[in-house]
Amino acid sequence: MGRICIVGAGFSGAVIARELAEAGFSCLVVDERSHIAGNCHTERDPQTGVMVHRYGPHIFHTADEEVWRYVNRFGRMEPFVNRVKATARGAVYSLPINLHTINQFFGKTFSPAQARAFVESRARLDIQEPRTFEEQALRFVGEELYRTFFYGYTKKQWGVEPAELPASILKRLPLRFNYDDNYFNHPFQGMPRDGYTAIVQRILDVPGVELRLGCAFEELDEPFDHVFYSGPIDRYFQYREGRLGYRTLDFEAERASGPEVDFQGCAVMNYPDPDVPFTRISEHKHFAPWERIPDQTIVFREYSRACGPDDIPYYPIRLVNEKAMLLKYEQMAAAEKGVTFVGRLGTYQYLDMDVTIRRALDAARAFLTARRPRG
């Protein structure tokens, strides 16, 4: 068996390395950062002792039972329900938009059926097939709810007018006519008791896996039988068709201490007003309520901006010009021998953690199936 190179020590790379190593392959996992787990990296804040999500909040949620069992093999998942709030126009509301949000916003006491009829009366029913984010919002929630909760947040997050974004972005956000304020609909939801980095560490802890941190793929000069690449697809091809567009995030930390200190009373508070420069504030001790740290807290204000050459890419933009460029890169990737492109960056797709793990398992299994002797 030849040696396998796996680029990236996030969930994609770790899962693939584990599957191949257990099948007898020798794997080298490289990552140019100084730590594993990619953008899911968690670590203790040395000043407060709070476990922080260094690159923004990550809540694990899935309907894939095999993936749920998989992460529980490597770490204890504690029950956690993401209940997001939003400070908008001088008031605090519950997200996603639900019956409580609707009644509070419009000053009503609607039943579910009344709320549904009321929102439909505000909706732009003349928009039969929404093509843009804005049309999707206007079609399903109407002008008032769209302008209050979606327009400003979306413009800050993506750096463009919502009318320039595809409708598919908004289709991930539910609208409910009951009082359910669980941000996700999936049956399996939780947070790792010891953080995500500990889970990735345990996945990688298997004979046959060598880990090199602070090492870029371009620095390697040794031969490999196959490469699994979870870095940016355009970077692999040296940007010969141009750079794909990403958004990146900047975080502004604030710490406080004192008896029963609590900055905002919830894990995530969105700020959709256009005149507020940040998109949300995350208070990280609320992501691990079982730890009970009453006298310390740390929050991150989150600012979104265009991703430069030296920034960490977070969200693929996928506007029209990116799609045309991406098609060229996808064609080049399909023609590349001995390389499998995986993960959010390798496929230029927004992927939740559970989908990342599922695709990594599928990619590893497809590789192993192809390598089995026939007959």
UniProtKB/TrEMBL annotation:
It holds the Pfam family GLF. Keywords: FAD, Flavoprotein, Isomerase. It comes from the Bacteria. Its cofactor is FAD. Gene3D superfamilies: NAD(P)-binding Rossmann-like Domain (3.40.50.720). GO terms for molecular function: flavin adenine dinucleotide binding; UDP-galactopyranose mutase activity. The keyword Isomerase applies. InterPro entries: UDP-GALP_mutase, UDP-GalPyranose_mutase_C. PANTHER family: UDP-GALACTOPYRANOSE MUTASE (PTHR21197:SF0). This is UDP-galactopyranose mutase.
